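Inverse folding, one chain.
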C-alpha cells in the first residue's frame, strides 16, 4: 500500500463532514461560506498542517528543486562555510538553495520555517537559534516526510539527521592546552547551556579542569546570548573585574576572541603573558590578527556538504525514520601566539 505523505482537502472534508468543494471555497474565503464555517475550517487546516493542493502536489511528485537552509548569522565565517558546503553539493546535483537567517531569535526561526514549507522545499538544513527551546515549527516537515538535517547546533529531542563535531572532546583538548601552558584560572565564554553543543563544550572544559586537579568555578563560565564581539568584550570586562581574574579565556567562537584581543591591546593587557586567549572555528582573521589567535578547526564546509548529501540520499534511497544518520566530524587544535606561554 502506498504511504500517505500529506493531508488533503478530502481528509479535511471527511473530518468536518462537508464536501471537498466547501473546504476549497472556505480556504479561499469565498462569500458563499459563512464566516464561522471559514474560521473553523482554517483552524482545522492549521491543526492538521494542511499544505494547499498545488504545493502538496509538488511535494508528492518530488518536483521541488530547492533545499532550504536556516542559519543564525550569514555574516559569520563558520556559518558562511556551512552554506558554501551545502551550495556546492546541491549545485552538483542540480538543486537550488534557499537561505534564511534567524539572528539567533526563536521567532525569526519559526517564520523562516513557515516560509520554507510554503516554498515547497524538498529538504531542510538547520543550525538552531540560540533562543529555540520549542521545536513544533518543524512538525510540518516531519509530517510531510520532508527530510530535516540539523547542523552544528543539534538537539537530542528530535529524531532526524544530524551533522556535528565531538564537542566534549574538542573543548577538552582546548582546555588542556591552556593548562599545559600554565594557566590555572581558565574562563569559558559559552553559548546558552540549553543548546546541546555548548552544554557539551562546558562538559569537556569542566572535565579537563577536574582531570588536572583544577576547580570548576561557576563564576568563570559566562553563557552568551549572541556570541557577538560586543558581548565578548562585555563578558571579559566582568571577568577581569573579579577579585581573582582569569589568566586565560576560552571562547566558543572566534568573533568574541578576536574582539577580546583588540580590547586587550587597547587596555594594555599583555597576551598571552597576562591573559591567554583562545577562540573556536578557525576563521581566516585568526591567522592575521596580532597576536595570531589559537583556535580549533570547526569543519563548517564539510558539515554543509554532508548535510546536503543526507537530503539528497534521503530522497534517492527513500529512507524512513529508521534510517536517520548521525555524522560526527573531527576537529583540530591550531596553536598560535595568543596562548603560547611556554
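Residues assigned per position:
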Amino acid at each position: 500500500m502506498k504511504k500517505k505523505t500529506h493531508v488533503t482537502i478530502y481528509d479535511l472534508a471527511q473530518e468536518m463532514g462537508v464536501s471537498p468543494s466547501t473546504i476549497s471555497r472556505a480556504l479561499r474565503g469565498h462569500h458563499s461560506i459563512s464566516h464561522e464555517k471559514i474560521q473553523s475550517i482554517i483552524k482545522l487546516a492549521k491543526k492538521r498542517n494542511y499544505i494547499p493542493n498545488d504545493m502538496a502536489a509538488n511535494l508528492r511528485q518530488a518536483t521541488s528543486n530547492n533545499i532550504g537552509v536556516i542559519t543564525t548569522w550569514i555574516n559569520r565565517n563558520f556559518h558562511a562555510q556551512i552554506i558554501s558546503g551545502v551550495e556546492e553539493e546541491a549545485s552538483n546535483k542540480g538543486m537550488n538553495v534557499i537561505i534564511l537567517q534567524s539572528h539567533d531569535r526563536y521567532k525569526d526561526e519559526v517564520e523562516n520555517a513557515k516560509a520554507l514549507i510554503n516554498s515547497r522545499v524538498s529538504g531542510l538544513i538547520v543550525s538552531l537559534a540560540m533562543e529555540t527551546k520549542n521545536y513544533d515549527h518543524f512538525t510540518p516537515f516531519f509530517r510531510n516526510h520532508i527530510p530535516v538535517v540539523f547542523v552544528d547546533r543539534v538537539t537530542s529531542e528530535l529524531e532526524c539527521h544530524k551533522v556535528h563535531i565531538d564537542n566534549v572532546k574538542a573543548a577538552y583538548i582546548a582546555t588542556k592546552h591552556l593548562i599545559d601552558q600554565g594557566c590555572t584560572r581558565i574562563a569559558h565564554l559559552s553559548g546558552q547551556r540549553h543548546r546541546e553543543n555548548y552544554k557539551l563544550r562546558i562538559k569537556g572544559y569542566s572535565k579537563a579542569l577536574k582531570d588536572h586537579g583544577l576547580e570548576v568555578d561557576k563564576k568563570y563560565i559566562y553563557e552568551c546570548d549572541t556570541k557577538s564581539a560586543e558581548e565578548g568584550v562585555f563578558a571579559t570586562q566582568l571577568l577581569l573585574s573579579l577579585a581573582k581574574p582569569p589568566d586565560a579565556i576560552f571562547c566558543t567562537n572566534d568573533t568574541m576572541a578576536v574582539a577580546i584581543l583588540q580590547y586587550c591591546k587597547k587596555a594594555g593587557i599583555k597576551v598571552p603573558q597576562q591573559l591567554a586567549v583562545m577562540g573556536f572555528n578557525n576563521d581566516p582573521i585568526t591567522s592575521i590578527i596580532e597576536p595570531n589567535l589559537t583556535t580549533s578547526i570547526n569543519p563548517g564546509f564539510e558539515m554543509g556538504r554532508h548535510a546536503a548529501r543526507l537530503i539528497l540520499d534521503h530522497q534517492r534511497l527513500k529512507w524512513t525514520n529508521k534510517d536517520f544518520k548521525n555524522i560526527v566530524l573531527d576537529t583540530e587544535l591550531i596553536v598560535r601566539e595568543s596562548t603560547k606561554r611556554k
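The chain has a mean pLDDT of 91. DSSP finds twelve helices and twelve strands in the chain.
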